[in-house]
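> call design_seq(struct)
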């Protein structure tokens, strides 16, 4: 059961709706990730997180994107977190 309320796609307006569109466009599933939705009440913070994800987490650096994703998936599984 979710404990953090968020704004659904159909209720998003203004900058939040634009951020949701960016999130959908850059997502492999074409959906806004729930982890992003948890920040929907703070679009300023969500924008910074999306930008950091695009520029840091999801780019090749010391590790490839695939390696980052594998580590994130493994840690999420260890913590029994569906994110």
């Amino acid at each position: 059961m979710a404990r953090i309320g968020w704004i659904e796609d159909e209720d998003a307006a203004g900058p939040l709706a634009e951020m949701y569109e960016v999130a959908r466009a850059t997502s492999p599933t074409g959906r806004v990730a729930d982890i992003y939705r948890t920040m929907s009440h703070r679009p300023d913070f969500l924008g910074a997180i999306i930008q950091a994800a695009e520029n840091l987490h999801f780019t090749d650096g010391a590790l490839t994107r695939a390696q980052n994703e594998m580590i994130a998936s493994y840690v999420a599984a260890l913590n029994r977190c569906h994110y």
